[in-house]
Amino acid sequence: MATKAQWIEGARPRTLPTAIAPVVAGSAMAAAMGGLALLRAFLALFVALFLVIGVNFANDYSDGIRGADGADRVGPLRLVGSGVADPQHVKAAAFGCFGAAGIAGLVLVALCGHWWLLAVGVACVAAAWYYTGGEHPYGYRGWGEIFVFVFFGLVAVTGTTYTQT
What stretches of the chain show up as alpha helix (H) in DSSP? Predict the structure, then answer.
């Protein structure tokens, strides 16, 4: 049974700037355009943080059940690969984070009134899961960096700006 500290480490807090930076950039753009909306910025930040944590748990789960995280792995603790957490619990944590991001995203979409953004949210969750999950994970085929740039770069920055302006 993983401890609270191990779950926190498994969430990979060092990766959280990848969620924070695009929201700050998008909010700065919104402010420059005269449209900064703090509640929407905080909702976008919540979405981004929980998507990053969710993808970290999803990656941990998928790599762990595939055996990609062996004993000689260097880097942050892998909950499944190290055997400290049940794979199904890590998978549930990933989908719990995706759900939390989805709820905050739904509120954000309701506030800005652009319901088509729900499709963007679904695409974000799908990209997060299929990075290393599913039958044909794109992260193992050299597409990971492109998807990270698109979703944690372009989509996060422009989405943050768009929902505020």
Answer: 4-10, 17-32, 38-66, 87-112, 117-130, 144-149, 156-164
